[in-house]
Each structure stands twice: as C-alpha cells, then as structure tokens.
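To fix ideas, we reproduce below one chain and its tokenised fold.
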Amino acid sequence: QVQLVESGGGLVQAGGSLRLSCAASGFTSDHYAIGWFRQAPGKEREGVSCLSTWDGSTYYADSVKERFTISRDNAKNTVYLQMTSLKPEDTAVYYCATDGILRGCSPYYSGSFNPDYWGQGTQVTVSS
C-alpha cells in the first residue's frame, strides 16, 4: 500500500519561499511518476508539478514555472516542492499524489487526473 505524508506548508508573505515535502513508501516499482496538485477555495484542482523517477523528467504548470522546483531524495524516498517568489494566488491546499504505476508525467498535467494515492494535504497561505 502506497502511503504519502506531506509536510512543510504554512503562512508566508508574498515574495517568500516554502518547501513542501512528500515522504513516500510502499511502492512496488522503482519507476513511477509523482505529482503535486493544489486546490484553492472555489477553484478547480490544478496540476502543479510532477517528477518521473523513471527518466527524471519534470513538469511545471505555466503558473509556477521559474518559481517552483520539484526534486527527490532517493535515500529518504521523499519528493520536495521548493516554492519561491510566492504570490497570493499560490494560496491553496497542496497535495502530493501518485498512482504508483504510470511512469510518465503527462497525466499529471490535468487537475482532473485522479491518482489512487494522495497525501493528506498541506495548507499554503501567501499574504499580500
């Protein structure tokens, strides 16, 4: 059973930085994609970023390109989302998610993609 545990959200002023962590366990394969999604009140869920452990490819939504960086610590089985130059519109609950099987990131482009495994979510609030 895949388990994802997130941490690292909080309150930050616009222009600040936060790093989200997603500790993952229970995978049956060493090659999978894992993504970050976010959902703000009254808005649709958005696919923010993804990393494929299969080929190292990454994906970023246009809204976060050049500001967010996804990475992985293999030894800790943890995926990070480093967020810089944060804006009030980045305020949302952030989730890491994976289906544990698909190797590519393309399904994670869409906020409507619904992987089997989700973290509990972590609140990010950016004040203006």
